[in-house]
Design a protein that fits this description.
InterPro entries: AAA+_ATPase, ABC_carbohydrate_import_ATPase, ABC_transporter-like_ATP-bd, ABC_transporter-like_CS, P-loop_NTPase. By secondary structure, this protein is α/β, with parallel strands linked by helices. It has 3 domains: about 230 residues, Rossmann fold, CATH 3.40.50.300; about 150 residues, P-loop containing nucleotide triphosphate hydrolases (Rossmann fold); about 80 residues, no CATH class. It is globular, with a radius of gyration of 24 Å.
Length: about 500
């Protein structure tokens, strides 16, 4: 007989948790209750307190006030790591799998079976196979972890957590690096694991995923608990209102009602027969004052095309022309000099120097313009940094603040500031709103609208539908080629079907 939810004991419960760092309250009297066998979404803007709550739920930090309980019993002491591993695990957006080790070695790292003081490799491989088979994870135990797909590495991390005895798994942005088919498979696996008694806390900025996979949702805002409710009882507009404190949905300038460009508008960017490792014969033109979207599955080649335009990747054949002049292939300084600005895909590895300040990051591409011999004074850098803080609404104590201390949304605004610093004629944005909250997404997409009105050309390379609504037309890539073009005003289901290689209108 099923126990009524109201009488069931929560898998995990945080009760009145407060955590401060100096004068800043990262959490202020926050509570959350996750019930057995459910997927419970945790959502909120960057800086809302999600990461701090996760660190408390996983025993990495101790709350200043309040407590955490597992199955109605007080959480273990912070120092007792084994006891925490038996209760909870977190699969982070940035994988903790060691790529150069095998799957088996990753599953049993620091607890390898031994015989006479030596690792018993046969037993470890046998145990790994048994573990993978039990949880229906189809990877080879002797495969090198770095050769697995992102999806497979996530499942190995989940299996490792389950092998400790944990039946409560926190998934931190699990779909950030997956394409449509991989996301569907992951969601099916989550559903199967739920039926086997595993409980999930699901953290995502993709609100549609909350409605697809989760049964309950908790919203944090400004370090406080705003609401916990069944997903079915909280429509999307109300969820966004809870996250932002403002009524209405995502305020994004939709290109559907935009006037057409005048005849004879000059072409800013032209690709002719561009070929690379995962794309072939890509050709299109982008005019001044136009916004084009380039979309497709993660493996479609869209990111590689964008990186070739920005000089980050060298194409094998074809030509890129800016204002009619051929661009040297694979040459970032040349791309910058020809008026191309870029927001790269990975802000942590390609977009920012995390140990440097807002001002230093924002002015990195224009140091030669701020000072003689490319050496700018701190005062000039800070003045430029402050200008960008004001222009983009970057929430930071000041231009000299180190960017590692900013929320994800504000870090992405700093990357945007660096791309705009050279006053580019062509702006290439690769996944510009990935991993940022609703309000940061609005601010970043407002920049697209603003620079378009200034007569600049913008290429938005993204799988996010909200990003693509700002575009005058959207090009869909499928298996390395441009397969379709949609004018502004497209229907979601038509675009999604095209991305996945499906025609909804075949005779």
């Amino acid at each position: 007989m099923n126990v009524p939810v109201s009488e069931a004991v929560a898998v995990v419960e945080a009760l009145g948790v407060t955590k401060r760092f100096g004068s800043t309250a990262a959490l202020n009297d926050v509570s959350i209750r996750v019930m057995p066998g459910e997927s419970h979404a945790l959502v909120g803007r960057n800086g809302a307190g999600k990461s701090t709550l996760v660190s408390i739920l996983t025993g990495l930090r101790k709350p200043d006030i309040g407590e955490v309980q597992f199955a109605g019993t007080a959480a273990p002491a912070i120092a007792d790591r084994d006891a925490w591993r038996e209760r909870v695990a977190c699969v982070y957006q940035h994988s903790t799998i060691i790529r150069d080790l095998t799957v088996a070695e990753n599953l049993f790292i620091n607890r390898q079976p031994q015989r006479r003081g030596v690792i018993d490799w046969n037993v470890m491989r046998r145990d790994a196979r048994a573990l993978l088979d039990h949880w229906k994870i189809d990877v080879r135990e002797d495969a090198r972890a770095g050769d697995l797909t992102v999806e497979a590495r996530q499942l190995v991390e989940i299996a490792r957590a389950l092998s400790y005895g944990a039946r409560f798994i926190i998934l931190d942005e699990p779909t950030a690096q997956l394409d449509g088919d991989e996301i569907k498979r992951l969601f099916r696996r989550i559903d199967e694991l739920q039926r086997e008694g595993v409980t999930f806390l699901f953290i995502s900025h993709h609100l549609q995923e909350v409605y697809e996979i989760c049964q309950a949702v908790t919203v944090l805002r400004d370090a406080r608990h705003i609401v916990s409710a069944p997903v079915s009882a909280l429509p999307r507009e109300q969820l966004i209102e809870a996250m932002t404190g403002e009524r209405g949905g995502l305020a994004v300038a939709d290109a559907a009602g935009r006037a057409a460009l005048p005849a004879g508008t000059p072409v800013a960017l032209e690709l002719a027969g561009l070929c690379g490792g995962d794309y072939e014969d890509v050709s299109f033109t982008l005019k001044r004052g136009e916004v084009i979207g380039l979309t497709g599955a993660t493996s479609s080649g869209r990111t590689s095309v964008a990186e070739a335009i920005a000089g980050l990747r060298r194409p094998q054949r074809g030509e890129i022309r800016v204002d009619g002049t051929a661009l040297p292939p694979g040459d970032v300084p040349a791309a910058l000099a020809r008026g191309i600005g870029c927001v790269p895909k990975d802000r942590h590895h390609e977009g920012l120097v995390l140990t440097q300040s807002v001002a230093e990051n924002a002015s990195m591409t224009i140091a030669r313009l701020l000072g003689r011999f490319g050496i700018a004074t701190p005062a000039k850098k800070n003045a430029f940094g402050q200008k960008m803080i004001e222009a983009l609404g970057i929430v930071a104590p000041g231009p000299d603040h180190v960017v590692s201390g900013l929320s994800g949304g504000n870090q992405q605004k700093v990357v945007m500031a660096r791309a705009l610093a050279t006053n580019p004629d062509v702006l290439v944005l690769i996944d510009p709103t990935a991993g940022v909250d609703v309000k940061s997404k609005e601010a970043l997409l407002a920049v697209v609208h603003r620079v378009r009105e200034e007569g600049k050309a913008v290429l938005v390379v993204s799988g996010e539908l909200d990003d693509l609504r700002t575009c005058d037309r959207v090009l869909v890539m499928f298996r390395g080629r441009i397969a379709a073009e949609f004018p502004a005003g497209w229907q979601d289901h038509d675009l999604i079907a095209s991305v996945e290689g499906v025609s909804l209108h075949e005779e």
